[in-house]
Specification:
Chain lengths: 378, 203
């Protein structure tokens, strides 16, 4: 295939190959430079043959390249330079800008009894770009799949919670109705206007009120899980609830820029409820602080809500999240904790009575992310 | 031939070790990572126990391997094998990629081929140099799949009584990535290798 003619070395078949091919002597003198190399480097074979490749491309003169090619001259196998470690060993510019990504194989080759290195350069630019694009696509698809899984889990959990709440509430209402019916029956057996009659009426009214409260409670939880959980920018979300609250004389310190959490769309109500509780029970609050803290165990992120009001007494710290504590004053901490739990977020109260309330909203790693602010944000 | 005497085994261990040390140096220089290759354990495994090799050493179903055929006084195949996840972890550590995917795509395969190439060149180069043998080689080829699917296993009748197994570990930073170097010799090649080793020892 390779012949020597009167004009010197002629390797016309190698000029037909769409890969860069060159032949090196033991001392790294270039013996051959094919047409493809001429095209890729812009250097004619007349210019490069007979010159030393290490002088022309000094970056090759590193132990990781030269030493390995020398191994080949010493009788070792072919040497491979992969595009990941050596993308541009012999820089070959692309017309569109940038450099070709190269895969290089150096193969032992005998030319007229002389041991040489046949260097084959493949242009793997397109392949590399395709693999990178594929990796990017895969990453996006995996993220979407992850979100879908989270949504499915959240819907499942929300349904479970709704069923439980329905069942408990129905049970409570049935109990109250039994009481009411019992007293109504007693009423029918006693003389109208008697002392007992008045007492029974009081109990009946109280029971009916309790039933109304329980039915009202269903209004608040009926929306849980109706819409899929989604990523929500916390700072923006908190700021949207502020105008609907009377915050006169209260300093709001919110430091949550760039934080998004994956939660039920009712998350807004959770923050509304926390602020409303501060206003309702805080007695003398002047400041509310909401900020993020990664000083938690298990890699959770803490969203800390603090006020400087009356705080929560120690004996009530856990009770405030129980359904029994619900006082018909709105959404309530019980429903707040249920909303958060849909995406495995927990809430607890860790403040000191007399100094202020402090709620820690603990977000697992899979349910928070930091994002760069959008361009239109100041 | 029923195994090797301890002296010959020691000599082979030393030759392979020279190669492994050289490979570690080159990988370290190339990547800037602190790489240590453990001195390989050399053992001979009867070819009839290849199945054991699969069960005992390569519990992972999918392996990533770089294979190089050689011919000369002794002929055969040298193979560097990694469990697939180790292979991807090795490439990612060497290249500084921080993706979680254990998948070996075209770019990672090329990088692993180069790593395998460095190890095999160094090991085979050492053997050829120390024993003053002329060997010719194929280009390294990548294989992914179960051990039983490797081409050299298809021609078991061509394989000598024993497979030489050099087991080493790549210690990168705090991670321990295991890899194996196999030397599968053709019929009659093991005795010729042993002769060469003994001759080199007497020189």
């Amino acid at each position: 295939m390779i012949q020597e003619d009167s004009a010197g070395l002629s390797f016309s078949p190698l000029d037909m190959i769409p890969n860069g091919i060159l032949i090196l002597r033991l001392d790294f003198t270039i013996l051959y430079w094919n047409r493809c190399m001429e095209e890729w480097t812009g250097l004619s074979r007349d210019t490069v043959t007979g010159t030393n490749i290490l002088d022309r491309y000094p970056t090759l003169n590193s132990p990781t390249v030269v030493a390995r090619i020398r191994q080949l001259f010493e009788g070792g196998p072919a040497v491979i330079f992969s595009p990941l470690f050596h993308p541009h060993l012999i820089p070959c510019p692309l017309r569109s800008g940038g450099l070709r990504v190269e895969k290089i194989s150096c193969i032992p080759y005998y030319l007229a009894q002389e041991k040489c290195a046949l260097v084959v350069i493949e242009d793997v630019t397109d392949l590399t770009n395709q693999v990178k694009a594929y990796r990017q696509m895969k990453k996006v698809a995996e993220e979407q799949l992850d979100d879908l899984k989270k949504t499915r889990d959240a819907i499942y959990l929300a349904n479970k919670k709704l069923n439980l709440l329905n069942s408990i509430t129905r049970h409570d209402i049935m109990n109250k109705l039994t009481v009411l019916l019992g007293y109504l029956e007693l009423d029918s057996e006693i003389a109208p206007g008697s002392q007992d009659c008045g007492r029974y009426l009081g109990i009946e009214l109280e029971t009916a009120e309790a039933i109304r409260s329980q039915i009202q409670f269903t209004r608040y939880y009926q929306d849980i899980g109706i819409r899929s959980a989604l990523w929500q920018n916390i700072e923006e979300l908190v700021r949207t609830v502020l105008p609907s609250l009377d915050l006169k004389g209260i300093h709001m310190d919110i430091a949550l820029k760039g934080l998004e959490i994956y939660a039920d769309p009712l998350l807004q109500k959770v923050f509304y409820n926390l602020i409303e509780n501060s206003l309702r029970h805080g007695e003398h609050i002047s400041t509310i602080r909401i900020f993020a803290s990664d000083d938690t165990r298990d890699g959770d992120l803490g969203i800390i809500y603090e006020d400087d009001g009356a705080g929560v007494p120690d004996e009530a710290k856990e009770k405030i999240f129980k359904r029994e504590y619900y006082k018909n004053t709105g959404f309530g901490l019980f429903l707040s904790s249920e909303i958060l739990a849909i995406t495995n977020i927990r809430i607890r109260e860790t403040g000191t009575a007399g100094i202020g309330a402090r709620f820690e909203i603990l977000v697992p790693r899979s349910a928070f992310r930091w994002v760069a602010p959008a361009n239109n944000q100041v | 031939m029923r195994g090797l005497d301890e002296e010959t085994l020691d000599a082979i261990r030393e030759i392979v070790n020279i190669g492994v040390g050289r490979a570690a140096g080159q990988l370290q220089e190339m990547t800037g990572s602190h790489i240590r290759l453990r001195i390989p354990d050399i053992s001979l495994l009867p070819v009839s126990e290849i199945r054991k090799l699969e069960d005992t050493y390569f519990k992972a179903n999918i392996l990533s391997a770089v294979q190089l055929d050689f011919k000369g006084t002794f002929s055969g195949v040298s193979v560097v094998i990694f469990p697939q996840e180790s292979a991807a972890a090795l490439v990612m550590l060497l290249t500084g990629e921080n993706e979680n995917s254990p998948e070996m795509d075209a770019i990672r395969i090329e990088a692993l081929k180069e790593v395998g190439n460095i190890i095999m060149n160094a090991v085979m180069g050492s053997i050829a140099n120390v024993l003053s043998e002329q060997l010719t080689y194929s280009l390294p080829a990548y294989y992914e799949g179960p051990l039983s699917g490797m081409t050299w296993l298809e021609n078991k009748e061509m394989i000598d009584e024993y497979i030489m197994l050099a087991r080493t570990n790549f210690l990168l930073e705090s991670l321990n990535i295991e890899g194996d170097i196999l030397l599968v010799l053709e019929i009659g090649s093991l005795s010729r290798l042993v002769e060469s080793v003994q001759m080199a020892g007497s020189r």
